[in-house]
Write a structure and sequence with these properties.
CATH superfamily of the largest domain: RNA polymerase II/Efflux pump adaptor protein, barrel-sandwich hybrid domain
Distance between the termini: 70 Å
Order of helices and strands: HEHEEEEEEEHHEEEEEHEEEEEEEEEEEH
Helix content: 25-40%
Strand order of the largest sheet: 4-13-16-15-14-17
CATH architecture of the largest domain: Beta Barrel
Shape: elongated
Largest sheet: 6 strands, antiparallel, barrel
Radius of gyration: 43 Å
Number of domains: 3
CATH topology of the largest domain: OB fold (Dihydrolipoamide Acetyltransferase, E2P)
Number of helices: 6
Structural class: alpha+beta
């Protein structure tokens, strides 16, 4: 009886072992693939570079990220000075009445466009009537003198009149013609109307009305300012520099104009040889490639780069382009796919610029304005990973 019980217990233990082995095998066959599938899928998923930000050109523009090439020449090679946008001498005109009188018609208002030679206002004037009368009188005298000369020339040819009379007629005709020409030029300079009652206020340039002091019916004096016209495409940039810096500059030197957050390429057109008596500074005149983006009266800052200082190979970038990525100074270099964060070693700083000791090449183009958006995009991509 005891032997039988021992056999029964041994059989039960063997059944438990077999059942446990079968369960383990089933679990191995069914559970392992499901657990390893996510890992395999994660390994198959491609990973982007941790220091790159993919961005299209349209997205770069919409984000307001400006890209510019790095400057080579060292921090001391740049001359930073205040700049003022001025209307060129031929880009602004003051419109006046050439004779005193009452304003009878006004054709343009403040801000209206004006073509060269277009009439802006009409001033009725007694002076205009006098000028017109002088013109007609001088023209009549010139006509009479010419007829007299022709008659004397005929009589002299027929041996009827002496040569002295012919010479006298020639002198009188020349004098009358000169007087008629003078009267005509005076009427043209005063812009006298065809009816001789008024003077026309016309614009010598094309542009827009920037000042309108005339009022309908008002009496105005001769040469009083009535309107002012400016052509926004005719501007010049004046930069005040010290005498020492002026000696380093020459026409043709490159420059960058910073106005209202925008950076515009410019070039030195001229450097005044004398100093301003009040400020003791010289004036550098810059020409810009796209003057339509500037407005006369605006102020900004100019960065001038003399050619004589181009021997230095130090790279200079704006401080706004430097961001901190993973605890290091870095700049975002433009690539075909977007931008790449490149660690850099910085040197001396000054006037919003910083020298790059290592990490950048002279041919690189970097993000400057709103580069912090790229840092945010880079951080967002790291969190997703």
């Amino acid at each position: 009886m005891k032997t039988t019980n021992s056999r029964l217990m041994a059989g039960a233990a063997l059944a438990v072992v077999l059942a446990a082995g079968a369960g383990f095998g089933l679990a191995k066959c069914t559970g392992t693939p499901a657990a390893t599938a996510p890992a395999a899928e994660a390994e198959a998923k491609p990973k982007g570079a941790a220091d790159a930000v993919a961005m299209t050109g349209d997205r770069i523009t919409s984000a307001g990220i400006s890209v510019e090439p790095v400057s080579v020449g060292g921090l001391n090679a740049e001359i930073v000075a205040p700049a003022t946008i001025m209307a060129a001498p031929d880009g602004q005109a003051v419109l006046t009445a050439r004779a005193s009188g009452a304003v009878t018609r006004i054709f343009k208002r403040l801000g209206d466009p004006v073509r060269q030679g277009e009439t802006v206002a009409v001033v009725e004037s007694r002076d205009a009537a006098a000028i017109s009368a002088d013109r007609r009188s001088a023209a009549a005298k010139a006509t009479l003198a010419q007829k007299t000369l022709e008659r004397e020339r005929y009589l002299y040819g027929q041996k009827v009149s002496p040569r002295q009379d012919l010479e006298q007629a020639q002198a009188e005709a020349a004098s009358a013609q000169a007087e008629a020409q003078r009267a005509q030029l005076a009427a043209s300079a005063a812009h006298v109307s065809s009816d001789g009652r008024s003077v026309l206020v016309t614009s010598p340039i094309s542009g827009r009305i920037t000042s309108a002091a005339a009022s309908l019916g008002a009496f105005v004096q001769s040469e009083a300012e009535l309107f002012r016209v400016a052509d926004p495409t005719r501007i010049q940039v004046e930069v005040a520099v010290t005498a020492l810096d002026a000696n380093r500059l020459a026409p043709g030197d490159r420059a960058t104009l910073e106005v209202n957050g925008a950076q515009i390429d410019a070039e030195v057109r001229a450097v005044t040889p004398t100093l301003n008596a009040e400020t003791r500074s010289a004036t550098v005149v810059l020409s810009v490639a796209n003057p339509a983006t500037l407005q006369p009266g605006a102020v900004g800052r100019a960065r001038l780069r003399p050619k004589a200082a181009s021997a230095s190979t130090a790279i200079v970038i704006p401080e706004d382009a430097v961001q901190t990525v993973d605890g290091r100074d870095a700049v975002f270099v433009r690539t075909s796919q977007g931008f790449k964060a490149v660690p850099v070693t910085l040197g001396q700083r000054g006037a919003g610029r910083v020298e790059v000791v290592s990490g950048l090449s002279a041919a690189a183009q970097i993000a400057v304005k709103n580069s912090f958006l790229l840092k945010a995009e880079l951080g967002k991509g790291t969190e997703e990973e």
